[in-house]
Amino acid sequence: MQTVTLSNGVNMPIIGIGLWQVNDAQQAEDSVYEALMAGYRLIDTAAGYLNEEAVGRAIKRSGIPREEIFVTTKIWVQDAGYESAKRAFEKSLKKLQLDYLDLYLIHQPFGDYYGTWRAMEELYREGLIRAIGVSNFLPDRLMDLVMHNEITPHVNQIETHPFYQQADTNAFLNELGVQHQSWAPFAEGKNNLFSHEVLARIAAKHNMTIAQVVLRWLVQRNIVVIPKSVRKERIIENFNIFDFELDADDMERIKTLDTGNTLFLSYHDPEVAKMMGSWKVDL
Predict the structure, then answer these.
(1) Is 206 among the annotated ligand-binding positions?
(2) How many helices (H) and strands (E) does the chain have?
(3) Active site residues
(4) What is the DSSP annotation of 212-252?
(5) Model's pTM, two decimal places?
(6) Do 10 and 154 contact (CB within 8 A), yes or no?
(7) Which of 59, 136, 63, 62 has the alpha carbon at shortest distance from 100?
(8) Which domains are delineated in the chain?
(9) What is the pLDDT of residues 14-43, one digit of tens each?
């Protein structure tokens, strides 16, 4: 399994299974189990995904030693703050049936995430979390967090795909020593990604699928990927990206697809902050 080394020396698999929008508990459990059987060792869930219990069951069902699996979960906005973050962490740990987390992320840059970060720093020092990070933090908000806290986030999980390549942010994260992780690597199929002419030509050239080309492109940029799938054959397909390599011409052609804009939510928009701040989940 190819890994990246976080700034604290922890090794993180470069590809994992993502659980966003896998709402059916049995489907979530089966997806994680099939991924683990296929060789995946990174699982990405969140309190807000409402499938942490299914992940815990799949890990136990797999029989794979705990230390071989890298488990990520995230804290939702309504649990932001020092005391509530501590409670949310314990709740997630219990649902996952684990004694520690490999990575804990602040899911959204809203609410009292400073209080949350102080709680996470303490849990990290206590050895209950191997690495801590954030998700959806723009460079300015990330720099603000770094400047006023002791521990620099080890990971920032952000929207990254061929149509929103985040090149400048990637360079910024590299300067800070923060690992770049992609959510929505396939842009959820937007802009006809799975039939896009440029990507199709590259895929045909290598006798691979468009999905494999996209994941390989991200991995070659040293970006951790967490593609979601509930189909066994696609889970296996997504994992099989390490026996080919995109050349410089391929990388340049994909670079031309960048629009420089999100296909989902703009974190510059006050309405997004308002929506996230009022979005309550039955955790």
Answers:
(1) no
(2) 11, 10
(3) 49
(4) HHHHHHHHHTT-EE-----SHHHHHHHH--SS----HHHHH
(5) 0.97
(6) yes
(7) 59
(8) 3-278 (3.20.20.100)
(9) 999 999 999 999 999 999 999 999 999 999
